[in-house]
Design goal:
Shape: elongated
Number of helices: 14
Strand content: 15-25%
Largest sheet: 4 strands, mixed
Radius of gyration: 21 Å
Number of strands: 24
Helix content: 25-40%
Strand order of the largest sheet: 22-23-1-24
Mean pLDDT: 95
Bound molecules: ligand EPZ
């Protein structure tokens, strides 16, 4: 099992190109199942989760042409199987995203119930209830969701909880349903908007994506198209936090400059000098130690839960005391005990972490527990005294493309140990 060794690194300096967004690529790849023709998706990141989704589509009979760059041609017109099997779904919960498109396009779907994961129980009840409101017959037995529908019917669906993939599943299903669907309390994440823009390019009739109310007028079919995935705002935020923690000066390029306002405000509060253009964000700490900040995660446009672990690490070495409250997932502080092994002063009270910044962390062998926790341990390793070894980095490879190469180019001392 690969590990990463991170040695004390000076301030990160230079420019880094941001890859396409994982959490937009996955629903958009699932949406290709809706098309009557060939789709070309561009700017898809080379990630384990993307490979898993492509493997799932391939298992169903979708023909894929993946060239060495980030373009993928997808021909969904000869699908034979409508099953998303457990061995694939257990490695990637986002496989649930094929449920809505399969049901809408083929009237049947069998998707393994995604298990929980380290950060929480991750139920999919809202996906199922929404599809049932659209007329689907759904039974859950033997660990599988079995769904049938002659043709889905438009419905008004009010989501009890803001759910990103729940909104995405229902949005995709509604594009081919008969009549109008209204999704109330919809997720407003930029990745939901990117999916909606792709569906509109395929011929879907969608209004209000990015707001809490999305209105979809069902159509009879959707065409293939060429679509470019938006940049990854969480990868961007992760590099900006690494720059802030190392008191460096980094410019993230080919990124989205207006989808990270809540994160950029907190970085400015921490003392960062932030400038931005149409597709770039630059952070300069002028060599200063960051100041501690208070964070409260919530659905977009509030502070994203996927940036919480990285800011826990930042507060661990910042000046002062910072509190971080996690309101989206019930168990997303596992990185705290790993950071404590490196000397961080973190106490947990229910879903709030109180973090007293220390002058110096000390390297230790630590273990990644989930995707974003892995990132927080790496950025902590950059400023810790000695050589930090992060184990179980398969979590990391699911969501960050070539992270060690990108960090090395900024001056980080990091290498993969096989
Ligand atoms: C998406 O997960 C992202 N994954 C997550 O990113 C992200 O952390 C999360 O949204 C929140 O922003 C992808 O987009 C592939 P939710 P998702 O449904 O859709 C509860 C990463 O690091 N809920 O918005 O699974 C749920 O338990 C990953 O890239 C229900 O109760 O998250 C949670 O408490 C991690 N019933 C809350 O809603 C449901 O049917 C938000 O979950 C669905 C969700």
């Amino acid at each position: 099992m690969d590990k990463l060794q991170i040695s004390t690194s000076g301030p990160l300096k230079g420019e880094v190109n941001i890859s396409g967004a994982k959490n937009a690529s996955l629903p958009i790849l699932a949406a290709t199942l809706l098309a009557d023709g060939i789709m070309t998706i561009e700017n898809v990141p080379h990630l384990k989760d993307v490979t898993t989704m492509l493997g799932l589509l391939g298992r169903m009979g979708v023909e894929l042409t993946v060239d060495e760059s980030t373009h993928i041609d997808i021909d969904p017109t000869r699908i034979q199987r409508f099953v998303a099997p457990y061995d694939l779904v257990k490695t990637m919960r986002a496989s649930i995203l094929v449920l809505g498109p399969m049901l809408a396009r083929y009237g049947e779907a069998e998707v393994s119930l995604p298990g929980g994961c380290a950060i929480g129980s991750r139920p999919v009840n809202l996906h199922i209830e929404g599809l049932q409101r659209m007329g689907a017959q759904i039974s859950v037995e033997g660990g599988y969701i079995r769904a049938r529908a002659k043709r889905l019917k438009g419905a008004t669906i009010n989501l009890d909880i803001v759910t990103v993939t729940g909104t995405e599943n229902l949005l995709m299903a509604a594009t081919l349903a008969e009549g109008t669907t209204v999704i109330e309390n919809a997720a407003r994440e930029p990745e939901v908007v990117d999916l909606a823009n792709c569906l509109i390019a395929m011929g879907a009739k969608i209004e209000g994506a990015g707001s809490a109310t999305i209105r979809i007028q069902g159509v009879s079919s959707l065409q293939g198209c060429r679509y470019r995935v938006l940049p990854d705002r969480i990868e961007t935020g992760t590099f900006l936090v690494a720059a802030a923690m190392t008191r460096g000066h980094v410019k993230t390029k080919n990124t989205c400059a207006h989808e990270l306002d809540a994160v950029l405000l907190k970085l400015q509060e921490a003392g960062a000098d932030i400038s931005r253009g149409e597709d770039w964000i630059e952070l300069d700490m002028h060599g200063q130690r960051p100041r501690a900040v208070d964070i409260h995660t919530a659905p977009y446009p509030a502070f994203p839960t996927d940036m919480q672990a990285q800011f826990t690490a930042l507060n661990a070495v910042a000046e002062g005391v910072g509190t971080i409250t996690e309101t989206v997932f019930e168990n997303r502080f596992m990185h705290a005990q790993e950071l404590r092994r490196m000397g961080a002063d973190i106490s947990l009270e229910h879903n709030t972490a109180i973090i007293r910044g220390v002058e110096k962390l000390v390297a230790a062998p630590v273990m990644a527990t989930d995707l974003r926790a892995s990132a927080s341990l790496i950025v902590a390793g950059l400023v810790a005294e000695g050589d930090t070894v992060v184990d179980r980095i398969y979590h990391l490879d699911r969501g960050y493309e070539c992270i060690e190469e990108k960090l090395q180019a900024l001056g980080a001392r990091i290498r993969r140990i096989h």
